[in-house]
Structure formats: C-alpha cells, structure tokens
C-alpha cells in the first residue's frame, strides 16, 4: 500500500458510489490562539516606544551602558542576568543597549 495523500474530492451526498458520504465543509487549519500569545501588536510596540522615550533608561540600564563603555561586556551581561533573571533576556538587553550607545554616538557626531 502506498503512502500518498488521499486526494480531497467533494462528497456526493449519496450512500453509494466513488465519492459516497455526507457533504461537509472542509476543515480550515489555522494556528491556535496560544501560538499568537506574546506577539507584539503595532499599538503596544508604539506605546512602549513612547514610554521609553519619555521615561528614559532605568538605573540598572544606565549602569550596564557604563560597563559597556568601559569595555566590560561580560560583566555587563552578568549584571543584566542578575536583574532580569535569565541569560537570554540579559543578552537581548545588552544588545539593545549597545544599539542605544551606537545611536547616541551617531547623534553626537
């Protein structure tokens, strides 16, 4: 027996014949709502950007930037890890703050 996918044909609604069976609407497979959880909406992203702009950096973020400017990347990651909980989050935050430093340098020159 071959393992080819059965071709989807519309049922006739009759009890006999090649396409016997009740007519049904095809099942449309769409992603579960749980797969969308955590995805940022445009509005949320916009609001967070505005808040960041108005409030500025948190004290620990300022310290991380200071460590990065002094060339202590590993110490910056370790400090971020203590504040944020996981090393993955810490690495992401350090990368974000390095981008902030680069932007400030570009704006300064």
From TrEMBL:
| Keyword Ribosomal protein set for record | yes
Q: Which GO terms describe its molecular function?
A: structural constituent of ribosome
Q: Which domain of life is it from?
A: Eukaryota
Keyword annotations: Ribonucleoprotein, Ribosomal protein
One GO cellular component this record assigns the protein to is: ribonucleoprotein complex
A Pfam family reported for this protein in Swiss-Prot or TrEMBL: Ribosomal_L36e
Stretches of Basic and acidic residues bias are at 1-13
- What InterPro entries does the annotation carry? Ribosomal_eL36, Ribosomal_eL36_sf
Q: Map out region (Disordered) in residue numbers.
A: 1-43
One BP term from GO: translation
Give the similarity note: Belongs to the eukaryotic ribosomal protein eL36 family.
Q: What's the protein here called? A: 60S ribosomal protein L36
Q: Which organism is it from?
A: Triangularia setosa
């Amino acid at each position: 027996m071959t393992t080819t996918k059965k071709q989807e044909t519309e049922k006739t609604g009759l009890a006999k014949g090649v396409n016997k069976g009740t007519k049904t609407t095809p099942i449309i497979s769409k992603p579960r709502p749980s797969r969308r959880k955590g995805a940022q909406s445009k509005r949320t992203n916009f609001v967070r950007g505005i808040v960041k702009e108005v409030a500025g950096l948190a004290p620990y973020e300022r310290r991380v930037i200071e460590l990065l400017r002094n060339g202590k990347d590993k110490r910056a990651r370790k400090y971020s890890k203590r504040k944020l909980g996981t090393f993955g989050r810490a690495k992401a935050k350090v990368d974000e703050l390095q981008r902030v430093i680069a932007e400030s340098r570009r704006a300064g020159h």
